[in-house]
């Protein structure tokens, strides 16, 4: 069998049965292994090339190549691959190969039909029986000599379906036909309409290149369109605040500081709108413009107590408070409401506005705010600092560990075993074993009106029904001065 048949089988994915028979015959018996159970390793199958066009043996394109290879020494192999440059996806490449097959088939059939049957026959195929001598002589007298075959080289241009790529394939001349020249290439491009992204260097090279036939060349490449990107909102505050347990360097988790409250100062930037990116129009190899989509501008999610900046790109807070996202827009709340208790479900509170707690404040937690603090329940051994007033509806059970600071007034139903620092007035029904520093007046007139044990320092006076007790519990009272300032001075010293 001819060696080229084996090559064709490798190139086009087929193998003749007689090729298999030759392999069996050519292998000597002494080379067979002695062990019957030994099986030779099969060579790995070549990976399929997704951009390669595979044609059958009897295809007109293959027949044209074989006809040309018979008269050209060391003829180069056909090359039918669409070199992708990002203009086609894998799925699009498969569809494009089907279009290319139809295109090449139509052109090859048209050219194959132009060749006379005498030229198509191979020398070993001419086995027809000789005609009668008389008929042959009579035919020779009547028939004229056939004109010599003359088919010029034929360049064909294939344009992809998206018109972003063009490939060139050249059929060689047949008989006395002309070889390829630059004029043929220019005429082929003009007929196909390809006028943008043409590889001029390749055109010059093909005019004088020897092995240029039966080869796909990418002759032109268009400019893909770049669509614009929509603008988006860049948030500086989280829209959905969830508990985040962060471990320290010792692997311990701080369950008190959960950072669930997001504070913002007046005029602070909550979010900003990133402008959309402009698109870039594309252009096909036919010199046609591909329009691009423009990006949409993102609207600022404005809510209560927020406003847009002068340039309209930033969302600003109109007042200090807590930032929340309602599902449609950001809002700034000046009052932080805790529907339950201040415990491990909420963590410590650090807020720049007012705080309203509808439950209790558990031991070990802290509340710090520049506004008023209102607590509907009980304060246990916690630490509270209010920039305004501190209101405790049910009272304070400090267990000698609670510390309360208020820059204005403090209102509580009762106070037991706690340390209190009040720069305004303090009003309560009962004080038991507390350490109090008050720059205003201490009023214990409602309810029981008793003040038992501990130390009470008041700058403007003390008004109580009962001071001290019969159980000989020591109650110390200091009047005048600046109790809070004195405490801070002693603490610093």
What does this structure look like?
- This protein is α/β, with parallel strands linked by helices.
- The protein contains nine helices and 32 strands.
- Helices cover 20% and strands 28% of the residues.
- The longest helix is centred in the N-terminal third of the chain and has 24 residues, at 90-113.
- It starts with a helix and ends with a helix.
- It has three domains: 3-25 and 48-126 and 150-221, no CATH class; 223-319, no CATH class; 334-492, no CATH class.
TL;DR of this structure?
This protein has 493 residues and is of the alpha/beta class. It has 3 domains: 3-25 and 48-126 and 150-221, no CATH class; 223-319, no CATH class; 334-492, no CATH class.
Unreliable residue stretches: 1-28, 133-137
Overall number of domains:
3
Distance between the termini: 109 Å
Strands, count: 32
Residue-averaged pLDDT: 82
Q: What fraction of the residues are assigned to beta strands by DSSP?
A: 25-35%
**Which word captures the global form?**
rod-shaped
Helix/strand-derived category reads alpha/beta
Radius of gyration: 47 Å
Number of helices: 9
The main β sheet shows up as: 10 strands, parallel
Helix content: 10-25%
Please supply descriptive tags for the structure shown above.
single chain; 493 residues; alpha/beta; 3 domains; ten-stranded parallel beta sheet; eight-stranded parallel beta sheet; 9 helices; 28% strand; rod-shaped; disordered N terminus
């Amino acid at each position: 069998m001819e060696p080229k048949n084996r090559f064709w089988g490798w190139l086009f994915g087929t193998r003749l049965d007689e090729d298999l028979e030759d392999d069996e015959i050519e292998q000597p018996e002494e080379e067979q292994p002695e062990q019957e159970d030994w099986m030779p390793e099969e060579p790995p199958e070549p990976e399929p090339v997704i951009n390669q066009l595979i044609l059958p043996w009897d295809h007109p394109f293959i027949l044209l190549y074989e006809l040309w290879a018979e008269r050209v020494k060391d003829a180069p192999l056909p090359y039918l691959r669409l070199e992708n440059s990002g203009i086609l996806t894998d799925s699009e490449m498969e569809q494009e190969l089907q279009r290319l097959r139809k295109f090449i088939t139509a052109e090859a059939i048209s050219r194959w039909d132009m060749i006379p049957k005498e030229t198509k026959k191979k020398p070993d195929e001419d086995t027809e029986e000789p005609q009668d001598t008389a008929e042959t002589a009579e035919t020779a007298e009547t028939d004229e000599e056939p004109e010599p075959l003359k088919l010029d080289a034929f360049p064909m241009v294939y344009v992809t379906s998206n018109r972003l790529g063009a490939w060139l394939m050249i059929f060689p001349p047949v008989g006395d036909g002309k070889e390829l020249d630059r004029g043929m290439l220019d005429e082929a491009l003009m007929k196909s309409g390809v006028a943008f992204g043409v590889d001029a260097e390749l055109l010059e090279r093909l005019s004088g290149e020897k092995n240029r036939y039966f080869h796909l060349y990418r002759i032109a490449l268009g400019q893909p369109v770049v669509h614009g990107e929509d603008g988006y909102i860049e948030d500086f505050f989280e829209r959905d605040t969830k508990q985040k347990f962060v471990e320290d360097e010792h692997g311990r988790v701080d369950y008190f500081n959960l950072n669930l409250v997001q504070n913002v100062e007046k005029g602070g930037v909550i979010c900003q709108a990133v402008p959309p990116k402009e698109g870039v129009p594309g252009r096909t190899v036919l010199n046609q413009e591909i329009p691009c989509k423009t990006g949409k501008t993102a609207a600022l999610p404005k809510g209560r107590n927020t406003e847009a900046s002068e340039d309209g790109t930033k969302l600003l807070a109109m007042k200090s408070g807590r930032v929340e996202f309602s599902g449609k827009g950001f809002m700034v709340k000046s009052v932080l409401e805790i529907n339950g208790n201040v415990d491990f479900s909420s963590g410590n509170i650090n807020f720049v506005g007012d705080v309203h707690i509808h439950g209790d404040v558990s031991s070990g937690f802290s509340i710090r705010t520049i506004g008023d603090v209102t607590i509907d329940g009980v304060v246990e051994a916690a630490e509270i600092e209010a920039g305004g007033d501190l209101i405790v509806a049910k009272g304070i059970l400090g267990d000698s560990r609670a510390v309360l600071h208020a820059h204005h007034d403090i209102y509580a139903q009762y106070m037991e075993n706690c340390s209190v620092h009040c720069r305004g007035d303090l009003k309560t029904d009962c004080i038991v074993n507390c350490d109090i520093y008050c720059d205003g007046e201490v009023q214990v007139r409602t309810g029981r009106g008793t003040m038992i044990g501990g130390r009470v320092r008041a700058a403007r006076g003390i008004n109580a029904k009962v001071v001290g007790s019969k159980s000989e519990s020591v109650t110390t009272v200091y009047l005048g001065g600046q109790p809070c300032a004195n405490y801070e001075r002693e603490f610093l010293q």
